[in-house]
Amino acid sequence: MSTQPSVVPTPVTAIPVAKANRPVRIGLALGGGAARGFAHIGVIKALESQGIQADIVVGTSAGSVVGAMYAAGNNGFALQKMALEMDEATISDWSLPLFAKSSGVLKGDALQAYVNRMVHQTPIEKLKKPFGAVATDLSSGQAVLFQRGNTGTAVRASSAVPAVFQPVRINDRQYVDGGLVAPVPVRFARDMGADLVIAVNISQQPEAQNGNSTIDILLQTVTIMGQSINQFELKQADVVIRPELPSMKGSDFAGRNLAILAGERAAMAVMPELKQKLKAMQER
Q: Which of 38, 70, 132, 273 has a CA 20 to 30 Å removed from the CA of 264?
C-alpha cells in the first residue's frame, strides 16, 4: 500500500487592503456682508489650491451672489476675473425718483439680470453644483431656502436689504435679505446633505462700522440684528473662516482686491484644521 506524500501548506502573508476613504460631502456656507462678499472669492481660490471642492453651496445676500456663480461652474480665478470686471453701476439700478413711494431705494432688477447673465440663464436646479439662496419671508419672518427656479430672482431676494432694495415678490409672497434670519446659512448646508460644513463669516462687529451714509447705517442695522443668530449658527459649522477686513465697509466696492486677498489668507490659516477634520471624517 503506497503512502501519499504529505502536503505541507505554505504560509501566505496577508496583504493589507487599503481602506477606501468614505466620501464626504463638503458644504460651503457663504455669509452676507455686501461688498465684503468679495472675500468669498479668495476663500474659494484658497480651497481649490489645496484640492478642496465644495459639493454643496449655500449663500445669504452677498454670499448668494458669489455662491450662484461658483455653483454655475466658475472656479476661483474665473470668479476673481468677474469681480474685477464688475462695474458697481451694473448692479445698482437706482429707483427714480430716489425717495418716491417705493419701499426701497434700489429696485434690484440689474442685480438679477447680472447674476442671470453670469450663470448663462441657468435655473438653480440645473447649476453644476447643488445651490441654495436664503431669503426672509417678509410676512412670516421665516427663513426660506430657494433651490429651484430663476437664479437671479432668488439671489435678488436673498440680497434685498430692507430700505436699500425693494422686497422681491415671488408667487404672491414678498422676500427680503436672508441676513435677517441666517447671516451665515450653516444649517441650510446641513439640510442640503453636507457632512462637513465650511462657514465663511464676513460680517463685522458693529462698533467697527462707523460709516455715516444711509446705506452704511442700514447695513450695520442688519449686522446687529443678525449677531445673536450668527453666534448660534456658527457653532454648528465644522470650520469657520473669518476674513480680516477691519476697515472695509459694506458699501466699499473699490476694496474688492483687498477683500479677495483677505479671504485667501483667512482660508489658508485654517487649512490644517480643515484637512485634519476632513481626513478624520473620511476614515470613519
A: 132
Measured in whole angstroms, how far is the alpha carbon of residue 10 from the centre of its chain? 59
In single-letter form, the type of residue at position 165 comes to: F
**Considering only CA atoms, which of 254, 167, 177, 258 is closest in space to residue 221?**
177
Alpha-carbon distance of 271 to 274, in angstroms, equals 5
Report pLDDT for 6.
62
- Of 238, 236, 246, the C-alpha closest to 54 is 238
Q: pLDDT value at position 19?
A: 61
pLDDT of amino acid 113: 93
Q: Which of 239, 212, 184, 234 is nearest to 36 (CA)?
A: 184
Q: Please list the ranges in the chain whose pLDDT falls under 50.
A: 94-100
pLDDT for the residue 185: 97
What does the DSSP assignment read for 137-165? Answer: ETTT--EEEE-SS-HHHHHHHHT--TTTB
Please provide the DSSP assignment of 250-273 as one string. TT-GGGHHHHHHHHHHHHHHTHHH
User: C-alpha angle with apex 150: 149 to 152, nearest 5 degrees?
Assistant: 145
61 is catalytic: yes
Q: Which of 177, 195, 238, 252 is catalytic?
A: 177
Q: How far apart are CA 158 and CA 187, in angstroms?
A: 16
Is 109 assigned a catalytic role?
Answer: no
User: For residue 257, which amino acid is it?
Assistant: N
Catalytic residue, candidates 61, 158, 159, 251: 61
